[in-house]
Each structure stands twice: as structure tokens, then as C-alpha cells.
Amino acid sequence: MTILILNGPNLNLLGHREPDIYGHGTLEDLEARLRAAFPDITFECFQSNHEGGLIDRLQQAHAQKIDGIVFNPGAFTHTSVALRDAIAAIDPPLVEVHLSNIYARERFRHSSYVSPVCIGQICGLGRTGYFLAVQYLTGADR
Ligand code: DQA
Question: Residue with the nearest Cα to atom 2 of ligand 1?
């Protein structure tokens, strides 16, 4: 089983960026911990600060028939019709994840363009959200 861990803008700065909100761990550390926690899963990890790069990777994941996607679209969550359309256009099951509780933050973060076309959303649980999303995609609890 192959799962894509897809992260949007500024998530390459995890560990340095607003650590009171996003924690002290880096993205590389998160990816390594996912690999260690799920040794039977092949992870493909991709981060981009560019909307088009994320759309290209989503389309590629569809073409390669990847088994599932965990996606933190960062700030594009609140702005991007194009990402929503890309998610709606592809087959692999996709779970939206946010480290912070976007509903407890600024008003402009309260809406997600992508949520309606995702299987579900996990937010506010920090890095644990990524692990729970992978667990869901493995079908372990279904
Ligand atoms: C985020 C929440 C977004 O509002 C923000 O723009 C991010 C990170 C999160 O993981 O909590 O970049 O997606």
C-alpha cells in the first residue's frame, strides 16, 4: 500500500514557524515518524509552496493509482478553488489534515474550500492528525 503525504505552503518551515501553534518538530521528522509507525506502508512525501505543484502532484497520484492521500493544503485551504477541483477530479481517497484547530483561529481560517470534496477533515490534533489519517486510509478501523 502506498500513501502520499502532501503538504502545502510554509509547511516546509515546521519546527521554526510559529512553534507555539505548529509545534517544534520538523516536516522531515514527521515523515520519518510516519515511516517508523507504519513500516508496511510505502510513503511518498511531497511539499510545495506552489498551488500548481500541488495540483500536478494530485493528478500524478491519480495516474499512479496511489492508495490514499493525506493532505494539509496550508493557507490554500481557505483560498483555492483550483485545489478543490483537483481533489474532486481524482479517485484516491483523500483526508484533509490541519495541525491547528482552524475553527478556533482567525475568522478567515474557518472555511475550507476543499473539505466538501475530501473524505473527512482532522484538525487541531497536531501531528497526531497525520497518523490518524493514515490509520483511516489503511482501513484498519473500517
Ligand atoms: C494549517 C492551517 C492553515 O490555516 C495555515 O495557513 C497553515 C497550516 C494547519 O496545519 O494548521 O499553513 O493548514
Answer: 74
Alpha carbon nearest to ligand 1 atom 9, residue: 98
Give the separation between CA 83 and CA 100, rounded to whole angstroms.
Answer: 20
- For residue 99, the CA-to-ligand 1 centroid distance in Å is 7
Instruction: Report the nearest-CA residue for atom 7 of ligand 1.
Output: 74
Residue 22 annotated in active site: yes
Rounded to the nearest 10°, the torsion over CA 52, 58, 59, 61 is: 140
Per-residue confidence (pLDDT) for residue 142, from 0 to 100: 62
Q: pLDDT by residue (tens digit) across 108-117?
A: 999 999 999 9
pTM check: above 0.85:
yes
C-alpha cell at 80: 483555492
Atom of ligand 1 lying closest to residue 73 CA: 13
Task: Please state, for a pLDDT cut of 70, what percent of the chain lies above it.
Answer: 99
Cβ count near 92 (within 10 Å): 18
Distance separating the N- and C-terminal Cα atoms of the chain: 16
**pLDDT tens track for 88-105:** 999 999 999 999 999 999
